Amino acid sequence: MAAEHSVPFTATIEQLDETTWRVEISGDLDLATAERLAATLAEPSSHDGAVVEVDLGGVEFLDSSGLRVIVATASRLEARGGRIVLSGLSAAAERVLEVTGLLEALRSG
Predict the structure, then answer these.
(1) Would strands 51-62 and 83-87 be described as parallel, antiparallel, or unpaired?
(2) CB-based contacts of 61: which residues, under 8 Å, 6+ apart?
(3) Which residues have C-beta within 8 Å of that of residue 15, sequence separation ≥ 6?
(4) What is the tens place of the pLDDT at every residue in 77-92?
(5) What's the pTM value of the predicted model, to 2 decimals?
(6) CA angle at residue 108 from 105 to 109, to 5 degrees?
(7) Are 57 and 4 in contact (CB under 8 A)?
(8) Confidence class of residue 6 from pLDDT cuts 50, 70 and 90?
């Protein structure tokens, strides 16, 4: 049996101004990393009117667990008058978002 390939999850977060954050994600977004992704996005998404740009250019794998965190964050931001914007999509992330019908809604914010 072949060993599973897993790419380490990393996240960097930068506050650009009072209401704008940029979060750069790389690695696998799956069940094993979904909680860490949620924790990373918790602070910027807790502010009224926040705009959170999430760069998924380094994401090598995205499953429903990672997608659920992104959608929940988008909903939380929208409820507070903010929005999430996805950028720099890797082929893996773009494919999942396109299949689920979320690509345009989350890319354009």
Answers:
(1) parallel
(2) 7, 28, 29, 30, 92
(3) 21, 44
(4) 999 999 999 999 999 9
(5) 0.89
(6) 75
(7) no
(8) low
